[in-house]
Design goal:
Layout (H helix, E strand, L loop, with lengths): L1 E2 L5 E5 L4 E5 L23 E7 L2 E6 L4 E6 L6
Antiparallel strand pairs: 1-2, 2-3, 4-5, 5-6
Length: 76
């Protein structure tokens, strides 16, 4: 579990291969995603999630990779 600068909470579910996002009030957000696989937005047994400097990192252990997602509302 990790939290971004907007106090949103991100939880990784290894069993469902899914990333859940909740706002600061605990409401489930539509930005949640994931499924089993090797492509974009897919994971195999992810074990961790971290946030640093507008980037969300997911340890996708079954695919032997760290996946990065830039979280930004910047238009540039």
């Amino acid at each position: 579990m990790t939290q971004d600068n907007n106090l949103s909470v991100f939880v990784i579910d290894s069993y469902r291969n899914y990333l859940y996002k909740f706002n600061s009030a605990g409401k489930f957000m539509k930005e949640s995603f994931g499924s089993f696989g090797t492509g974009d937005g897919k994971f195999i047994n992810p074990k961790g999630v971290a946030f640093y400097n507008k980037v969300l990192y997911i340890a996708d252990t079954g695919n032997n990779r760290i996946v990065r997602y830039k979280l930004s509302t910047d238009l540039n």
